[in-house]
Amino acid sequence: MFKELKDLIVKSKHLIFFTGAGISTESGIPDFRGPSGFWKTNKPIYFHDFIESEEVRKKSWERSKDTKDKFQKVEPNIGHKAIANIMKKTPNSHLITQNVDNLHQKSGVPDNQITELHGNSTYAKCLECEVRYELAPIYKAFSEKGKIPFCDECGGIVKTATISFGQPMPEEEMRIAQAKTVLCDLFITVGTSLVVFPAAGFPQLAKEIGAKLIIINNEPTDLDAIADLVIHEQIGKVFSNFSID
Fold it and tell me: Which position among 14, 48, 118, 232 bears the catalytic label?
């Protein structure tokens, strides 16, 4: 099974990794939909409510700060590092991720080889003009004065650069992900339940255009039946001592 995984990667000319929350659980970040997932203990904040209500925005920033404080020392694990290493040695490889934790970047994957479908929680941006803001001064003003941020440039609402429930998917990132997928010859999903659409449509698309599909996930997924290789194991176990020449 692991030999087949390695052989398919070595033969690939256009490799896509597609990762979900499961790859970061071994770094100490809980997933979202599992038995102890984030949404089991935290009610989702919807984008419309964030826009319409100052109180909801305050709640969102309070949650964001608490989460940041809890996970600020989190580091990439074996899976992140293995993917970064494989991509360095595999021409034309690309990573599509549903994660917002920035751990792929910390593991060494360059920004120009990553497409983040659900954004990034390590910075904020204006919802109007998309000016980027660092989080440290926002959290400081919020902690000391209860101040929620507005854009210095246009006065627009500033929000963490993540995609909330009910918020439109980012058009440019979706376009890039589709363009990369239709060119791939091998599509590997890692740590994703493949139930969130439209993101989960990319492995289906890869299979439809003739690429090999590999699914690596602790639990079965709805796409296991169409995959060329399915590995139900801990991600760290799969990639322990994994290397390609």
Answer: 118
Q: What are the distances in angstroms from CA 19 to CA 52, 110, 117?
A: 32, 16, 10
Does residue 48 carry a catalytic annotation? no
**When comparing pLDDT for 179 and 72, which is higher?**
179
Please enumerate, as own/partner, the contacts of 217-226 that have beta carbons within 8 Å and a separation of 24 or more: 217/22, 217/189, 217/190, 217/191, 217/192, 217/193, 218/22, 218/191, 219/193, 221/189, 221/192, 221/193, 221/194, 221/195, 222/194, 222/195, 223/189, 223/194
**Percent over 90 (pLDDT), the chain:** 83
Domains of the chain are 1-29+77-118+169-245 (3.40.50.1220), 31-73+122-162 (3.30.1600.10)
The answer to whether 124 and 149 are in contact (CB under 8 A) is yes
Which pLDDT belongs to residue 231? 96
Strand ranges in 74-148 using DSSP code E only, listed in sequence order: 94-97, 114-116, 119-126, 132-133
Q: Is the pLDDT of residue 1 over 90?
A: no
| pLDDT the model gives residue 107 | 97
Q: What is the pLDDT confidence band of residue 39, given thresholds at 50, 70 and 90? A: very low
